[in-house]
Amino acid sequence: MELTAEQEAILRTVREFVDKDVLPTVAKYDRSDEFPQPLYEQMVEMGLFGITIPEEHGGLGLDLMTYALVVAELSRGWISLSGILNTHFMAAWMIQNFGTEEQKQNLLPLMATAELRAAYSMTEPGAGSDVQSIRTTAKRTEDGGWRIDGQKMWSTNGLRSSIIMLLAVTDASANPRHKGMTAFIVRKEPGVQHQPGLTIPPNLKKLGYKGVETTELVFDDYRVPAYAVLGGEAGIGQGFKYFMAAVELGRVNVAARAVGVARCAFELAIRYAQERQTFGRKIAQHQAIQMKLAQMGTQIRAAELLTFDAARRKASGERADLEAGMAKLYATEAAQFCAIEAMRIHGGYGYSQEYMVERLYRDAPLLILGEGTNEIQQLLIARRLLELHAV
Ligand SMILES: Cc1cc2nc3c(=O)[nH]c(=O)nc-3n(C[C@H](O)[C@H](O)[C@H](O)COP(=O)(O)OP(=O)(O)OC[C@H]3O[C@@H](n4cnc5c(N)ncnc54)[C@H](O)[C@@H]3O)c2cc1C
């Protein structure tokens, strides 16, 4: 892949950060499920929160391709770091693409420096894959603002964020339902569990993906001003469309995360295979282990090609829903495969918390579930293929 000097420079910086600061400390944060404040601060310092925000709004103005490369590098260290970044990136992208001029001017510069951090909340206790069945409502109030009621689920960065990009029903009678949905830029106090109209219960306990909080959000008569509607008056009823566009970006991002996890699993496995001896030889000399390494290496190469091709297409403005879906499906299954194969190559030690592959085994499944499960992904891929090959 040909990279510009700027892409090379930022990737080199992130790679050094991962090798020097992330990999040696990740076990500590993972085990204690602690927010990695020093790592986060370094990410802010590197400008990663404004990586795709245009320079005129204080960001680095880099493209989706660069973002995907950075996410793969960060995730080689720890997917939770890309989790801290990703909802913010998606919310910023939505404001940049669908926001009013005032929303862009007021919010993007503060988002570029992470002074404002964003969550992205669409899922509810009763609605994950089936987004059109969400129930959180936003109703107009007499002062022209909005009143929000309902419960959101699985909101990554839900507690520490100051902005929640929220999908809510504004017209329950709309047919189809998605035409009655609107996106809101909800401002809140960061790090506060109880504020008037909004309760954030304790963080959800997860198998992996530790360190970054994932929360419920309980809205009960939470008030937001009229200008909280993404895109202003013209944005009313457009929320579903805006969120789905962001999910497509999210798929490229999840694929990139998967590339990072798979690379880490491979690097650990191929090193261990050349250190561990059984029956008088390095296990790398046993054909059974070689076959695993061959499968892992091949799947990673394919995952990289699919992912960065989808990112390149999307960055150049081409339609890329099919490619993003294929990349997400393939790369995340490859990450899951590589995590378990790396554990097998480590034998019993792979099951020990002393070895990093144990964490990868707990982190990888998130990727096959998030940003549209891989079952849903296959339905979307098939639908598009049938469109393209209609007889
Ligand atoms: C750690 C974590 C972080 C998350 N962060 C966020 C976040 O920041 N913001 C946010 O909005 N959401 C977030 N999510 C939610 C995530 O996107 C959803 O969990 C996911 O979309 C699946 O929804 P669900 O859990 O309700 O599963 P369901 O939709 O209930 O699905 C259950 C099973 O049924 C299958 N299924 C459903 N419908 C079909 C169908 N038509 N055909 C075939 N199979 C089907 C699914 O593939 C799955 O296997 C997060 C989830 C996790 C676990």
From TrEMBL:
A matching Pfam family: Acyl-CoA_dh_1
Taking every annotated instance into account, which residue ranges of this chain make up the domain Acyl-CoA dehydrogenase/oxidase C-terminal? Answer: 237-386
Q: Where is the Acyl-CoA dehydrogenase/oxidase N-terminal domain?
A: 4-115
**Which UniProt keywords are given for this protein, alphabetically ordered?**
FAD, Flavoprotein, Oxidoreductase
Q: Name the cofactor(s) required for activity, per the record.
A: FAD
Report TM segments.
none
Any GO molecular function: flavin adenine dinucleotide binding
| Record carries keyword Ribosomal protein | no
Keyword Chaperone carried by entry: no
**Domain called Acyl-CoA oxidase/dehydrogenase middle: residue spans:** 119-221
SUPFAM superfamilies xref list: Acyl-CoA dehydrogenase C-terminal domain-like, Acyl-CoA dehydrogenase NM domain-like
**Family membership:** Belongs to the acyl-CoA dehydrogenase family.
PANTHER family tied to this protein: ACYL-COA DEHYDROGENASE, ISOVALERYL-COA DEHYDROGENASE, MITOCHONDRIAL-RELATED
Name under which the protein is recorded: Acyl-CoA dehydrogenase
